[in-house]
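Good morning,

Attaching, inline, the backbone tokens for the sequence recovery test we're adding to the shared suite. The designed sequence is right after.
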């Protein structure tokens, strides 16, 4: 039995005893405070981080601050006024013990997930350590496999719910859930993506850069560099989810589903690249990029160091503010059920070297989705843009 498992069992036992002592009604008040604080941290945490310029690991402070404030306001302050009233209804100690048991299990699993996440982040940041997913043979040395899997599934569902409540689309919420379910594997895949030759080839290709500047999704999707990039493990979950959703919208024509999935990923990559490219003209960005500490962290691909370094956090904040200034990413899979031409507006300013273009989306006579920066052929020209 691992040390983490022993700590988990001790915490569950403590929560059971505390639940017995507080009783059912005070326990329910604590649960209400927990739920309100959890949902509130998802909704207002990003606002706090934006106002305080917190990014990277310190962005967790914004969520934690909102969580604590809501928990105090909903759970602790009201208890001072209604605590005796609730106790007068009868303590119902055994029901409170059951509630405490459930609370202890859930909060303990959240703690196990947090341990996995920060361990994965630290391991990935160590260039001399290769992080791999846990296997049944080596898992007991760190965590009990059953506890690990249960914690991941719990946080996956909670992340989906939190992302949905905060206004994220179906695909974005599902991606958040998948990341929470596989934190170690996701961190490993992201590090492998940064080290990959495919990414370097993709970013340095002149015709790829031109396609992203002009927002020509057809040229980008059909390029061998893009097809090689999206087959890397880091894009596996996103591609599978996008393909699944697009396939459902497209019906039996799976080719349409694959095309729409590629289009979704290409749109995200193109948007990020163009917005990042626009930042090169920002003198403050150039100053931060030339900072010796930031350059050293970038060269080492030290994720934890980048997230904890104040100058790197400022660089991230400026990048995120540029992304938020543009319009929301286009989810083409949500529009594939409409057999019509759809004009997709430019989502960010183009680089100074190229004029922005408009992308048209329509189905041809065979039902295959087409994308181009030229208007649809004549039979489709009278359809809605």
């Amino acid at each position: 039995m691992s040390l983490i498992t022993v700590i988990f069992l001790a915490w569950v036992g403590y929560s059971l005893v505390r639940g017995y002592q507080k009783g059912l009604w005070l326990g329910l008040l604590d649960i209400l405070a927990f739920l309100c604080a959890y949902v509130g941290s998802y909704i207002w945490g990003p606002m706090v981080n934006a106002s305080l310029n917190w990014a990277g690991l310190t962005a967790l402070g914004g969520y934690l601050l909102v969580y604590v404030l809501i928990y105090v306001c909903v759970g602790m302050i009201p208890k001072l006024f209604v605590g005796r009233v609730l106790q007068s209804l009868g303590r119902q100690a055994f029901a409170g013990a059951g509630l405490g048991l459930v609370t202890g299990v859930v909060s303990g699993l959240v703690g196990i997930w947090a341990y996995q996440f920060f361990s994965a982040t630290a391991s990935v940041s160590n260039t001399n350590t290769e992080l791999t997913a846990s296997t049944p043979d080596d898992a007991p040395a760190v965590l009990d496999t059953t506890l690990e899997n249960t914690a991941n599934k719990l946080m996956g569902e909670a992340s989906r719910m939190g992302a949905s409540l905060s206004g994220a689309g179906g695909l974005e919420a599902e991606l958040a859930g998948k990341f929470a379910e596989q934190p170690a594997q996701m961190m490993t895949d992201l590090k492998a993506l940064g080290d990959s030759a495919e990414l370097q080839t993709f970013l340095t290709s002149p015709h790829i850069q031109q396609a992203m500047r002009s927002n020509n999704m057809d040229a980008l999707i059909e390029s061998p560099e893009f097809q090689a990039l999206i087959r890397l493990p880091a894009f596996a979950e996103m591609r599978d989810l996008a393909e699944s959703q697009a396939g459902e919208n497209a019906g039996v024509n799976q080719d349409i589903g694959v095309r729409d999935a590629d289009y979704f990923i290409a749109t995200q990559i193109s948007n990020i690249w163009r917005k990042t490219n626009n930042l090169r003209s920002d003198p403050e960005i150039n100053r931060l990029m030339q900072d010796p500490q930031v350059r050293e962290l970038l060269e080492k691909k030290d994720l934890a160091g980048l997230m904890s370094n104040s100058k790197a956090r400022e660089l991230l904040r400026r990048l995120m503010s540029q992304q938020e200034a543009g319009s929301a990413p286009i989810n083409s899979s949500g529009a594939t059920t409409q057999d019509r031409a759809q004009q997709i507006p430019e989502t960010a300013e183009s680089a100074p070297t190229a004029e922005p273009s408009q992308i048209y989306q329509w189905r041809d006579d065979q039902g295959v989705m087409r994308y181009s920066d030229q208007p649809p052929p004549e039979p489709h020209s009278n359809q809605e843009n």
